[in-house]
Amino acid sequence: MQLTINGENHEYDGPLTVMELLEIMRLKNKFVAVERNFEVISYKNYHDVTLDDGDQLEIVTLVGGG
Q1: Which of 6, 14, 25, 41 is 20 to 30 Å from 60 by CA-CA measure?
Q2: Which CATH architecture best describes the domain 2-61?
């Protein structure tokens, strides 16, 4: 399955849910926002939303600072 994540192409064995992708990317326990094909996905749906071949994702992490 081909996904575009933050403008870069990536190949994964599919199907994957958003949460499974975050686990692979080692972002599971981080505060992130995920947009799929220009639509923001609610955190409570990360386990239920299955990604499709060709999906475009934007994943941003929250960073605190002083």
Answers
A1: 14
A2: Roll (3.10)
